[in-house]
Specification:
The complex is a heterodimer. By secondary structure, chain A is α+β, with helices and mostly antiparallel strands. Chain A is about 35% helix and about 15% strand. Classes of the chains: A alpha+beta, B alpha+beta.
Chain lengths: ~160, ~280
């Protein structure tokens, strides 16, 4: 079937089986290879993209479900040359190592920060909330500490009036 | 062969499609059905119910809350009345997968898949939920207590779709609780999880509904425990009665994730904790 989606602000059309995974359409048909495949089972979060503004695992979305929907991938987080606050903070904190999980973490973190989901007035509460919100993104290198540090900084920056 | 695909705009159209193609996959958030989709054969057709308006509403009525089958676990856990009055549902919603799963996984999906480890299912049992199901022949309501008939089998007929769950609001004297034991809070498939609704008079148990998941071929009400705690005092007395009654009442599954013996011990601790004083919302 023919599917037209808005990806990172641009209208794109593909002709694919409705059963094909959004992840595969992104990587194979549209050559947007920033989105990674980890487990293919919705466990690891490496393939996280925003679909109609929600953070979802693109390995679990059938492309048939994406007609006339809006998708933001890691390639669409930056505004031109200006990185998203989450991306800047991940760079500043060193919140990445091998990099496979990083695009998914950046997208999920951008979603929770932009939505104002990181609540909590003190640092410990905010960090606990971040760990719950990012629990669907598995990183086997960093131990998460620097990733959480980065999201705390980004959440504060985005929340500033 | 490429799968056929229909995304109905109205429930009526969805029911027509279901009746015409009972062999098609009924898809909503896809968090279960799309696992490893690239390695599995394509279904003959896909009936896509994601965001079908008539299935998505959460309506607070006088005596209960009607939760559309298409409501997501993110929506359910953030609904103020569900959080306050139907705690087991809100709590289970928060531990189904993680953010990305909760944004897509639906109540209807959990109920339709009817896995023995479906996290929300003991909550529906303990809260005495009813299901509304529909087909081109009309709609009917059935008690969730009798809905599951075996391992991933249910009373749902081939031409029917799940429309909503109706969950009565517990009275003031009823306390509810839910708890899951897994390798970690997020993502992991539960080893044992359970929910309880306990009606008390002071600290005496008047009646209770106790439900467990992952201890049988389907989510179950443990009536032996419910009978044993009636008239007992919350705390050590009721907890011991619950533990003893549970011992012979369940036959936990034994699989790669946990042994039956371990699940049995955890389940005993879980029900004992439900009836210990001060452990409930």
């Amino acid at each position: 079937m023919k599917v037209t989606l808005e990806i990172n602000g641009e209208s794109r059309s593909v002709d694919a089986s409705p059963w094909k995974r959004l992840l595969d359409v992104l990587r194979e048909d549209l050559r947007l290879t920033g989105t990674k495949e980890g487990c293919g089972e919705g466990e690891c979060g490496a393939c996280t993209v925003m679909l109609d503004g929600e953070a979802v695992n693109s390995c679990l979305v059938a492309i048939g479900q994406c007609d006339r929907r809006t998708v933001t991938t890691v390639e669409g987080l930056a505004n031109g040359e200006v990185l998203h606050a989450v991306q800047r903070a991940l760079v500043a904190c060193g919140g990445a190592q091998c990099g496979i999980c990083t695009p998914g973490i950046a997208v999920c973190a951008a979603h929770v920060v932009d939505r104002g989901l990181v609540t909590g007035t003190d640092d410990a509460t905010a960090r606990a909330r971040i760990r719950e919100l990012l629990a669907g993104n598995i990183c086997r290198c960093t131990g998460y500490q620097l990733i959480v540090d980065a999201i705390v900084i980004a959440a504060r920056e985005v929340a500033k009036p | 062969m490429t799968a056929l695909y229909v995304r109905p705009r109205e429930l009526r159209e969805a029911l027509d499609t279901r009746a015409a193609h009972p062999d098609w996959m009924v898809l909503a958030g896809g968090t279960d059905l799309m696992v490893n989709a690239n390695h599995r054969p394509e279904p003959a057709g896909i009936l896509d119910l994601w965001r079908l308006g008539e299935l998505c509403a959460i309506r607070v009525e006088d005596a209960g809350v009607s939760i559309g089958a298409g409501a997501t676990w993110w929506e359910i856990q953030n609904h103020p009345v569900i959080r306050e009055r139907l705690a087991p549902l809100a709590l289970s919603a928060r531990e189904i997968g993680a953010l990305q799963i909760q944004a897509r996984a639906t109540l209807g999906g959990n109920v339709g898949t009817s896995s023995p480890v479906g996290d929300s299912l003991p909550a529906l049992l303990a809260l005495d939920a009813e299901l509304e199901v529909a087909s081109v022949r009309g709609s009917r309501r059935l008690s969730y207590a009798t809905y599951c008939t075996g391992y991933r089998t249910t009373q749902l007929l081939p031409d029917e779709l799940i429309v909503a769950a109706y969950v009565p609001l517990p009275g003031k004297a009823t306390r509810t609780t839910w708890r899951k034991v897994g390798t970690r809070r997020a993502q992991s498939i539960s080893k044992v999880m359970g929910a309880a609704a306990i009606t008390v008079d002071g600290d005496l148990v008047v009646s209770a509904r106790v439900a467990l998941g992952a201890v049988a071929d389907r989510p179950i009400r443990v009536t032996a425990v419910e009978d044993a705690v009636r008239g007992q005092r919350l705390g050590a007395a009721a907890a011991d009665a619950a533990r003893t009654a549970l011992r012979t009442a369940i036959k936990p599954i034994d699989d790669v994730r946990s042994s039956a013996g371990y699940r049995r011990e955890v389940a005993e601790n879980l029900v004992a904790r439900f009836f210990s004083a001060g452990s409930m919302s």
